[in-house]
């Protein structure tokens, strides 16, 4: 079935049932928003403070908006979050898969902002979602009032450990062996492997029911001349123990490519930077401070 991202219709139903359950379990008020883009229908979960500043969020590959709101739930108290189901990923958006090698993701993100009725928005992206935000910066930087990136794709290449992870994940998809899944997720988790069971649940069903090429979609390194909007302020978090994207290399290259950025290298953090409650509070404080600032200078900090 052309453009179909799931292995079977039955698998699609399994994933969507878990998705709906996880959104319900968040116990927050939300709206399902469906908008049209040039690439097809896109689903957004809108939740948070109606009087707060709007933030557009792009999730990681193989994830969805339910997991996004779980990770960033505390932001809902002060901001209105528009959590996007990435097109061509498991969720409720169109199943059309876009190319990471051209500007399609940037054009899609630009369409979202227009369809929501904004001239520009604060934009956030995690891992693969960070790569989407960088593509938006190459297409329509004027639509990003400020950018916030968590262990973003697009700055550095993935490591050899990531290749090992992919092999283990694929084997898990075939065999269903729990140890293979734990091994594959270890570079992500850190912090003694502590992670919410709902994230593990969604990871399992995605591996079992979504095609491999969808789960393992990645961005190549984006070049400086591909990104416009040097005046746009960015807040960037990298992990010192991130075995997917080297935190030090990412921080260094991010500063060069985005001169008006505040970069935080979280020394003890893995790729999954929200596995630690103290770190979550630190990140939240930095986000609040960054959003309130009028201007941001280029700086690298360790936390």
Automatic annotation (TrEMBL):
Superkingdom of this protein's organism: Bacteria
UniProtKB keywords: Hydrolase
The Serine aminopeptidase S33 domain, residue ranges: 77-277
InterPro entries cross-referenced by the UniProt entry: AB_hydrolase_fold, AB_hydrolase_sf, Hydrolase_4
GO cellular component assignments: membrane
An MF annotation (GO) of this entry: hydrolase activity
Gene3D superfamilies for this protein: alpha/beta hydrolase (3.40.50.1820)
Record has Ribosomal protein as a keyword: no
Protein name: Alpha/beta hydrolase
Source organism of the structure: Proteinivorax tanatarense
């Amino acid at each position: 079935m052309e453009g179909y991202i799931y292995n079977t219709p039955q698998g699609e139903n399994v994933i969507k049932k878990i998705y709906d359950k996880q959104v319900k379990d968040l116990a927050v008020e939300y709206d399902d928003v469906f908008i049209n883009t040039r690439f097809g229908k896109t689903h957004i979960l809108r939740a948070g403070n109606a009087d707060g500043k709007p933030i557009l969020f792009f999730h990681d590959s193989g994830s969805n908006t339910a997991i996004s709101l779980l990770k960033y739930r505390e932001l809902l108290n002060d901001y209105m979050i528009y959590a996007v189901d990435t097109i061509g990923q498991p969720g409720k958006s169109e199943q059309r898969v876009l190319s990471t090698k051209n500007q399609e993701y940037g054009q899609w993100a630009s369409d979202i902002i227009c369809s929501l009725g904004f001239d520009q928005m604060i934009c956030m992206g995690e891992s693969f979602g960070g790569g989407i935000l960088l593509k938006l910066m190459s297409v329509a930087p004027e639509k990003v009032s400020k950018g916030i990136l968590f262990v973003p794709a697009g700055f550095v290449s993935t490591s050899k450990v990531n290749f090992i992870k992919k092999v283990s994940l694929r084997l898990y998809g075939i065999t269903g062996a729990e140890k293979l899944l734990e091994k594959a997720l270890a570079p992500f988790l850190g912090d003694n492997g502590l992670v919410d069971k709902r994230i593990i649940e969604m990871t399992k069903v995605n591996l079992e029911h979504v095609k491999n090429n969808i789960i393992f979609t990645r961005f190549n390194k984006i070049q400086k001349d591909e990104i416009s909007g040097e005046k746009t302020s960015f807040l960037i978090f990298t992990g010192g123990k991130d075995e997917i994207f080297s935190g030090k290399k990412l921080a260094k290259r991010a500063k060069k490519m985005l001169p008006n950025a505040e970069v935080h290298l979280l020394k003890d953090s893995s790729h999954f930077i929200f596995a630690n409650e103290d770190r979550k509070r630190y990140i939240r404080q930095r986000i609040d401070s960054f959003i309130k600032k009028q201007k941001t200078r280029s700086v690298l900090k360790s936390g």
